[in-house]
Design goal:
With 289 residues, the chain is of the alpha/beta class. The protein has one domain: Rossmann fold, CATH 3.40.50. It contains 8 helices and 16 strands. It has a 7-stranded mixed β-sheet with strand order 10-9-8-11-12-16-15, sandwiched between helices. It has a 5-stranded mixed β-sheet with strand order 13-2-5-6-14. Helix 1 packs across helix 2.
């Protein structure tokens, strides 16, 4: 039996005071994660109360009135996450997504086959706090091409996609985890059903002097309305990014995982066809969790 999990509280601070507005789940995600396809309702159905048109998967946008986190009400199960992300950006994934979103394959060929230029700026920001050749674990790092300090120290990657790793990166083995200077979790928390559980899974791997660098998109809707907590009517569709974070919501999420903020980075990025901003937060184990 397939299970559909829905959020009942804020994914960041845990508050139950949420605003809600109807939205749609984009067809590619609905198809890959849930096995649902768009449906054409035509006049020959002979239905009295339904208007002809395309029926998509209905969902809801939720926003926390306390911390401002904006998120999809669907919380994908581990099985649904596996369906969605296994083979991420591989041939089958790209073919299926290009079917629903013509032009995606061309965009992938331009934007996702090279190391992003902004990673050098992230490294420069992190460098003063780390040893010359830091030992890095990249949690959710894909094929490792955008892992900080790749080629300058030990780099381990843990990722659900199963993508072959680039030169200089090795697969991580968490049950036998060694000591790392830096854990990186970049462009991951916006995808996951339970970001708190993920942070709590990583926290035990931090030694007293190790750091965790978390990075998420600073989504344009949040940047354009930084103080508003009534954004749900403006968020009418959801794709792979099921969580939109404010700086406050990310800080509160980290605190619940026993982490404290060392520093915060807001960095404009330009990846060819996509422009935006990332929000990075450098975290350490809280002294008194």
């Amino acid at each position: 039996m397939k299970v559909m999990e829905l959020a009942e509280e804020c994914i960041c601070c845990g508050d139950k005071d949420l605003t809600s507005s109807p939205a749609v789940l984009m067809p590619f995600v609905a198809s890959r994660a849930l096995g649902q396809q768009p449906l054409q309702i035509t006049a020959d159905w002979g239905l009295r109360d339904l208007q002809p048109g395309t029926a998509y998967t209905l969902c809801h946008s939720l926003q926390c009135r306390t911390c401002g986190a904006l998120f999809l009400d669907y919380r994908f199960t581990p099985e649904q996450m596996t369906s969605l992300y296994t083979g991420y950006r591989g041939a089958d994934y790209t073919r299926q997504r290009d079917h629903f979103e013509p032009g995606y394959a061309a965009t992938t060929a331009q934007d996702y086959v090279y190391r992003h230029a902004y990673i050098a700026e992230v490294e420069a920001w992190l460098k003063p706090r780390l040893r010359v050749a830091p030992r890095v674990l990249d949690w959710g790092g894909g094929d490792g091409r955008n892992t900080p300090f790749l080629g300058r120290g030990l780099v381990h990657v843990l990722d659900i996609s199963g993508a072959p790793l680039v030169q200089g990166a090795k697969h991580a083995s968490i049950p036998n985890a060694q000591s790392y200077d830096l854990l990186a979790c970049m462009q991951v928390l916006e995808h996951v059903a339970n970001p708190l559980a993920l942070l709590r899974e990583m926290t035990p791997l931090l030694s007293h002097d190790a750091l965790l660098y978390v990075e998420v998109p600073h989504e344009s809707l949040i940047r354009q309305h930084p103080a508003r907590k009534d954004l749900t009517p403006l968020k009418r569709h959801w794709h792979e990014h099921v969580n939109f974070f404010t700086a406050n919501s990310l800080q509160l999420l980290a605190a619940r995982a026993g982490l404290q903020v060392v520093d915060t980075l807001f960095l404009p990025v330009n990846n060819g066809t996509r422009q935006g901003e990332v929000m990075g937060m450098l975290l350490a184990k809280a002294e008194h969790p």
